[in-house]
Fold this protein.
Amino acid sequence: MKLLAISDLHVGFPDNHAAVASLGARPDDWLVLGGDLGETFEHVRFVLDTLAPRFRKLVWVPGNHELYVPPHAPPGEPRGAARYARYVELCRERGVLTPEDPYPVWEGEGGAHLIVPMFLLYDYTFRPDDVPVSDAVAWAAEHGIAAADEFLLDPAPFSSRQAWCHARVAETEARLRAAPGLPKVLINHFPLRQDLVFLPRVPRFSPWCGTRKTTDWHVQFDARVVVQGHLHVRRTVHVDGVRFEEVSYGYPRERRGDRPIDAYVKQILPTPEPSP
């Protein structure tokens, strides 16, 4: 039994939709879906209904795109925390684990690990020290960088995305402190550390990428692996002896056309052999 991961499937793109439909079955393995499956309930429902029968267990965390509400949405469209709750409901209807469920113990080669799906958002603190947090969006705009989140991600009922982030961080930290003392796999769409935000083409996109409140969580909470997405820059980095895996699939223009989606599924546990 393996623990596998992929994120940022963005099935609103026809090529990505077709790729997910073609993903091979691994009925003995768990698959982590690390957020940004799409922008609508229909997108997420398609991914869950397609992949749940092909794996022993799915684990889902939300990204920012699942929370988007377009300007033309009807007045009753769920927003903010209510929208997130609706995704949790969709998952639970299909037996998919979410950040709102008890953390499961993964029993496979290498021993027991606690699987910790999280939803933490961002608070604009991923910026240079000499830029006040209140100026982070303006600092990004100096280079023509802006996030659609500023227009499409409603934080209701919270007063701001920062406030929602801080509430999620506090709730998750309390759960982690009370969790069993097992080695952990921490899973979050957004990076936990600012130094892992690698965006060579748009470096000033960092304010929308996480919070400094989680910088040392990999040490505090005995993580063996941290799984993240969001950046669309797949890579493996080790910090303090902990493996950080960015597992994005990404947009069609960001991939080699001849590489099947199965090649983007990353093995998290047991620890894979180093690539030659």
